[in-house]
Design brief:
heterodimer, A: Alpha-Beta Plaits, five-stranded antiparallel β-sheet, elongated, B: 15% strand, binds thiamine diphosphate, binds magnesium ion
Chain lengths: 187, 567
């Protein structure tokens, strides 16, 4: 299974999630997980999409995604060059020191306790979350919820920097309304 | 309306209704011409025909709900063929959206996958920006349809009009010039090739780059093939032209692609109707792929050199790069031309005159010959479309309009109407099938009332001929539901008459020229000619769907005689 993580900056406009979802479904791309949230700029949201390529080329997926007008920037979050985290909340049907010990080993927090259930929270990479879950299995997992992955590039560079660089390079007449809208295709 | 005037619209096609009424009131006083169609699908295809004939953005307008959903087919059609149109639809008032209100349909949601972009506007202040963006997005880059859905209350509210000075499209970036390195790589590949072919697609017409193509092709001297969407991008009379490739392409064009060592791909997209079975397509060829849409590169076929940019500029910069490269080495194409020229003369397009009845190919060929290369020809979808692409000789871009990507029956009549509105001094023919014609002929009423004198040739083989051909070939002639009985019902001549057109009938070879000439003389009313043709004629050559181009057939169970040709 070839999983790839894409960070996608999108305009914070209605319908943008539907556009991305519709694109993936009609082109047969497989989404493993998808997380959306706000960014430092209120007009822009950021999606983290984990893709199972299954024979599709990553370049092609990116190019198709970039054709959506509301998509501003795309960057692959390569494992070696980025941090990737998921959030797990899991309700386990027992209580006691053994469970606390498992949680402690993973750096997970016990966020809710009652007589015969606890809720454990873990922020970690995907593998670690799977490992915790299998260690919790003997205690009886009653319910679990997991977020999609979110990812951030290491180092000083940001995705919005890259977008700004690209915008500077291309499309000199972008934004210029002076010329008639139809002029481009009349000659 | 103010926004549409600002966007430079001079004509639009549509039908009013409750939700769009506030926009229709000012149309009454506007300088924009509004043509009241009889079905919104007609409005959409008319906008497309107008755009394809003129290169300008076509505009259609409809009300919410059923008005909007009737635009779905033309929007999908324009998306597949990259046609710049803008559709304006009314929507139920903002507060009613999402309540299953009367005539509510989520047309933005419905058309998301079949438009280049779309909008739902509920705030009157956003209307000018949305319209301005819509025209910009539709007409630039790879052209395509844009829909702007506007809530009725946003159309009604009073607001001060301000046309945006600045467009805020952070995510819409176009690359107009290919990288210099890639241009040089392409020039080098061309100079080194022994069997190059220009694989020319509709993008060349969209980019208004026929002149640049002419220059480039003559410089290289390689064979040129023009796809169904590119007919007219390169003159059919030119000695470098091998015709159309694909499922019903010429033997020479199909074989040239198949045996090439280099495909110089210009605004084409390796569609399955051109490549046949992809894994066996042009297996020995390297690929130069020039396109404005980066997502086309490598989509179906790997590109050795990608030239992302506007085709006009791309070809213009390729010429000097090649001239420089050719001073070092110029390919010797003599052997290649001997082979391809040989195929062209051995396997020209042809047809037989049936013992009983009229040959449809002959009818179409005569229309092309009599009306000439300055006319515009629109086709429906089916056998008649393929014959019109084969037997009419195209010399200029924007003279051949058809529904290539979606294959929309019913396209011809409304598209011809739109083309005629855009090019009123040009003879515009709809070459239509008897099946297709029955899907959208109501627009002839629109044509008659609005004095849009198109000419319609109904190639009446009393059947869904293309489907029937497949039944003949692949379903042991079991003609399940393809007989239209249309030599009996309807009477196309009477129908034409009822719709305010002149109806003519032609049943024999002797009458063909006289009937066409008669139609040519009528310029104050639409003309419909019912050409009663033989129903058993088939489209050849043919590469059966899903098979390799190597298995091209020139007639039933008849492959070309490859003989000793070592290709
Ligand atoms: C809207 C639509 N429905 C069905 C088809 C499938 N189809 C393709 S060609 C064809 C037959 C067209 O018949 P006609 O217009 O008489 O043209 P002919 O092939 O006979 O020349 C059909 C049904 C289609 N392309 N479009
Ligand atoms: Mg027919």
């Amino acid at each position: 299974m070839a999983l790839h993580t894409l960070a996608v900056l999108v305009e914070n406009s209605p319908g943008v999630l539907a556009r991305v979802a519709s694109l993936f479904s009609r082109r047969g791309y497989n989404i493993d997980s998808l997380a959306v949230g706000p960014t430092e700029d209120p007009k822009i949201s950021r999606m983290t999409i984990v893709l199972n390529l299954e024979g599709h080329a990553l370049d092609q997926v990116s190019a198709q995604l970039f054709k959506l007008i509301n998509v501003i920037g795309i960057q692959e979050m390569k494992p070696a060059e980025s941090y990737e985290r998921e959030l797990l909340l899991v309700k386990v049907g027992s209580n006691g020191p053994a469970l606390d010990e498992v949680a402690r080993r993973y750096g997970a927090r016990v966020v809710d306790k009652s007589d015969n259930s606890v809720v454990v929270e873990l922020v970690a990479e995907s593998d670690e979350i799977s490992a915790l879950l299998s260690d919790l299995a003997p205690f009886g997992v009653k319910e679990l919820v997991q977020s999609g992955a979110i990812a951030l590039e290491r180092g000083v560079k940001t995705l919005s920097d890259r977008v700004r660089e690209e915008q500077g390079l291309s499309n000199p007449d972008e934004g210029n309304v002076a010329e008639s809208a139809t002029a481009d295709y009349q000659n | 309306m103010n926004s549409l005037e600002h966007a430079g619209v001079d004509v639009m096609f549509g039908i009013p209704g409750g939700a769009i009424l506030p926009a229709y009131d000012p149309i009454f006083d506007s300088k924009i011409r509004h043509i009241l169609v009889r079905h919104e699908q007609g409005a959409g295809h008319a906008a497309t025909g107008y755009a394809q004939a003129t290169g300008k953005v076509g505009v259609c307008i409809a009300t919410s709900g059923p008005g909007a959903t009737n635009l779905v087919t033309p929007l999908a059609d324009a998306q597949m063929d990259s046609v710049p149109i803008v559709a304006i639809t009314g929507q139920v008032p903002g507060p009613a959206i999402g309540t299953d209100a009367f005539q509510e349909a989520d047309i933005r949601g419905i058309t998301m996958p079949i438009t280049k972009h779309n909008y739902l506007i509920t705030d009157p202040d956003q209307i000018p920006a949305a319209i301005s963006e819509a025209f910009h997005i539709a007409s630039t880059g790879r052209p395509g349809p844009v829909l702007v859905d506007i809530a009725k209350d946003a159309l009604q509210k009073m607001t001060s009009f301000a046309w945006p000075k600045q467009r805020e499209l952070a995510g819409y970036r176009l690359q107009l010039d290919p990288e210099v390195g890639a241009i040089n790589d392409a020039a080098r590949l061309i100079a080194q090739s022994q069997k190059p072919v220009f694989y020319v697609g509709g993008g060349v017409i969209k980019a208004n780059a026929a002149k640049e193509l002419f220059r480039l092709a003559e410089l290289v001297g390689a064979p040129v093939v023009t796809t169904l969407m590119a007919r007219g991008a390169f003159p059919d009379s030119h000695p470098l032209h091998l015709g159309m490739p694909g499922m019903h392409g010429t033997v020479a064009a199909v074989t040239a692609l198949q045996k090439a060592d280099l495909l110089i791909t210009l605004g084409a997209r390796f569609d399955d109707r051109v490549t046949g079975k992809l894994s066996t397509f042009a297996v020995n060829a390297r690929v130069i792929h020039a396109d404005i849409d980066p997502a086309e590169i490598g989509k179906n076929r790997f590109a050795d050199v990608a030239l992302i940019g506007d085709l006009k500029r791309t070809m213009a910069s390729l010429v000097p790069a090649l001239e420089k490269e050719f001073t070092k080495s110029k390919p010797d194409l003599t052997l290649w031309w001997k082979q391809m020229g040989g195929l062209r003369s051995t396997y020209p397009l042809g047809y037989d005159h049936p013992a009983d009845g009229l040959s449809p190919q002959y009818v179409i060929e005569r229309i092309g010959a009599i009306s000439g290369p300055d006319s515009i020809y629109c086709a429906g979808v089916g056998q008649h479309q393929m014959w019109a692409s084969q037997f009419i000789k195209y010399e200029k871009p924007r003279t051949w309009l058809n529904s290539g990507g979606l294959g929309t029956m019913g396209y011809a009549v409304p598209a011809a109407m739109g083309a005629k509105v855009g090019a009123p001094d040009t003879s515009v023919w709809a070459i239509d099938g008897d099946g297709c014609f029955q899907m959208t002929n109501q627009e002839l009423v629109t044509c008659a009332i609005n004095k849009i004198p198109i000419k319609v040739a109904v190639i009446n083989n009393e059947s869904l001929g293309m489907v029937r051909q497949w039944q003949t070939l692949f379903y042991s002639s079991r003609y399940s539901n393809t007989d239209l009985h249309s030599k009996r019902i309807p009477d196309f001549v009477k129908l034409a008459d009822a719709m305010g057109c002149i109806g003519l009938r032609c049943e024999s070879r002797e009458e063909v020229d006289a009937t066409i000439n008669k139609a040519m003389e009528i310029n104050d009313a639409p003309v419909v000619i019912d050409f009663s043709v033989n129903r058993d004629a088939m489209v050849w050559p043919m590469v059966a769907a899903g098979t390799s181009n190597d298995e091209i057939m020139i007639a039933r169970e008849m492959a070309p005689d490859w003989g000793s040709q070592e290709l």
